[in-house]
Design goal:
The structure is a homodimer of 120-residue chains. Chain A is of the alpha+beta class. Chain A is built from six helices and five strands. The first copy, chain A, has a three-stranded antiparallel sheet. In chain A, strands 1-2 form a two-stranded antiparallel ribbon. The N and C termini of chain A lie far apart (52 Å). Chains A and B meet through strand 1, helix 1, helix 2 and helix 6 of A and strand 1, helix 1, helix 2 and helix 6 of B. The first copy, chain A, binds a DNA duplex (30 and 30 nucleotides) through helix 4.
Chain lengths: 120, 120
DNA sequence: AACAATACTGACGTTTTTGTCACTATAGGT
DNA sequence: ACCTATAGTGACAAAAACGTCAGTATTGTT
C-alpha cells in the first residue's frame, strides 16, 4: 500500500510517521504540547532553551502543515499566537511516552557502561 | 540530570533516545530485527530495498556502537555476518510499535484529507 | 586463471538540515 | 518621535546526513 503525500511516496505508515515526526525538535515540541496546551511560541522557547527561535518556528510550521498542530492567531498588539496539538497530533502520546521511557532506560544503561569502563 | 555520551551532552533520556534512534533507516532496521532475528546484511537489504547498502551498513555500525545491535562474524568464505538486537535494543519494541500504529492512523488521515480536497 | 558470493571500506559529491544574523510589523505608553 | 514586546521572515553559511561509485578480501569452484 503506497502512500502519496507532498510529492513523495511512502511504503508504510511507519515511513510516513517518521517523515512527519523526524525533525530535530519535533518530538520535543510535541512533548511540550502534550504536557501543557495551548502554548505561545515564547513559552515553547522557555521550555526548549537549546533550540533557537528560527528552528522552533520551522518545526512548528511543518507540524502545522501536516496538521499535527493547530495555530491560533489573535489580532492584538503585541501579537499573540497559540499552538495546540490537533486530534491526530494528540494521538502521538504513546509514541512520545514510549520514547521517553526507553530513553530513561538507555540513559541508565549508558551511565552504567561508563561507570564500568572507568574501572578498567 | 545531564547525560554525557560520545562527547555530547543530553538534557533528558528523550534527547538521548532520539540521537540513538534518529537515523534515516534505524527504526526500519530495528523493525526488521524485531520481526526476525538474527539477520544477515543481505537479508536486511531484501527487506529494505529502498535503502542502499552503504547506508544500511552505516546505520548498523552506529546501532552497534550504541550497543542496540550485536554483530556476529563467522570466519567462513564467503563471509557471513549476523545482526541481532541486544537486550536494550529489544526494549525498543513499544517505540516501534507505537510509531507503526500512529503511522497507520496518520496515513488514513492523510488519505482522507486528499480525498476531501479532490472533491472541492 | 578467472569467477563467484558476501560483507564490507574509501573517497567524493550532493542534498538536507540546522544555525545565525539582520530585519519587519504592530499599537500603546512615555 | 521613540521604545516596548511578540512573532515572525529572508538570505545566507555551516554542518550533518545521505547517496554513488569503485574497489578490497576471502577461498572454493569451473
Amino acid at each position: 500500500m503506497e502512500i502519496h503525500y507532498k510529492d513523495k511516496t511512502y511504503f508504510s505508515g511507519k515511513d510516513l510517521a517518521l517523515s512527519a515526526v523526524g525533525g530535530r525538535w519535533k518530538i520535543a515540541v510535541i512533548w511540550c504540547l502534550l504536557q501543557e496546551s495551548p502554548l505561545r511560541l515564547s513559552e515553547i522557547q522557555k521550555k526548549l532553551p537549546q533550540a533557537n527561535q528560527r528552528m522552533l518556528i520551522r518545526q512548528l510550521r511543518e507540524l502545522e502543515e501536516d496538521k499535527l498542530v493547530t495555530r491560533y492567531v489573535y489580532p492584538v498588539v503585541p501579537p499573540k499566537v497559540e499552538y495546540e496539538l490537533s486530534e491526530i497530533g494528540r494521538q502521538l502520546e504513546p509514541v512520545v511516552t514510549s520514547i521517553c521511557n526507553w530513553g530513561d532506560e538507555f540513559s541508565a544503561f549508558v551511565e552504567k557502561e561508563a561507570a564500568e569502563s572507568s574501572l578498567e
